[in-house]
């Protein structure tokens, strides 16, 4: 970006800081609410990061409050009020006086004598000589001040913001431990639920069919021993037993597939995702970058995340098109699933996103859902996959 563009961007930032500082003073009691304080701090933190060109990691949610405030978020309220007003007001005066000079130079005569604009604070414009000399001079001088000062002042404010809102090493470690503790509990719950599901499927499905088949074979054996000539009856029992074994094998394959999809072993992640997108009821475009070697656990999570997300698209979104993009940057693998449907995807509505989130968090990954009402929906999954 050119220096002029940076000065312009700095001026916009400073004027925004002035307004946010004034807003902080006006609604300070409301901003002490834990969630509002965190949202207010996050907005300033992201805004400062964009100005400085510093990518910021999303801050994890707290245990008891979704986005609850920290002491640093509360500290930022008075700091923002002070720095926003102190640094933003000079920028407003500079810009305002440029506007005054730009209006006064050609239109001074349109004002009543008592209302005529003043240049350089207290010099009234009473004639063309004053307007054509002091007006452009004021514009040039203040524009030079803005050109030279807006960028460093804005960056100074942004650094103050990040200095206040950036966590110390101890705080980051504490948040990290909290997230890992919560993730471990979720993983244990999910693991227990998965084991119970597998046990139920095996007990109620496969085992029941095998028991029924064993009983039919026992009856057939006894019937053959009692009357070898009753071939029709024995044949019927054997046929039922054969069908029962095939059904049990089908159910057993389904259980195995839910643990580790065989298609991943047969075709790899790219082939498995191709099969999933092909079977989706909504036309889906698949884009896969250079993934290199991906750990098996990550492949399983990505496969199930994409499969579940596309199932949601087909069932709930009323979309006419979807897309899946899987790529890798360093040790992070990302999967982005999009659709042009009606949006409104929410964990609490039983759309399967909660299951995706549990699987991803189990591997220390992240899930971001952007699904405004009316659409479109974008689900971004990121997972560490080693170097």
Automatic annotation (TrEMBL):
One annotated GO molecular function: ATP binding
This enzyme's EC code(s): 2.7.13.3
Reaction catalysed by this enzyme: ATP + protein L-histidine = ADP + protein N-phospho-L-histidine
Enzymatic class: transferase
CDD domains membership: HATPase_UhpB-NarQ-NarX-like
One cellular component (GO) term of this entry: membrane
Bilayer-crossing regions: 12-32, 82-108, 128-150
Pfam families: HATPase_c (PF02518), HisKA_3 (PF07730)
Keyword Disulfide bond: no
Domain Histidine kinase/HSP90-like ATPase: from-to ranges: 297-387
Keywords tagged on the record: ATP-binding, Kinase, Membrane, Nucleotide-binding, Phosphoprotein, Transferase, Transmembrane, Transmembrane helix, Two-component regulatory system
SMART domains: HATPase_c (SM00387)
Keyword Transferase: yes
Protein name as catalogued: histidine kinase
Organism from which the protein derives: Virgisporangium aurantiacum
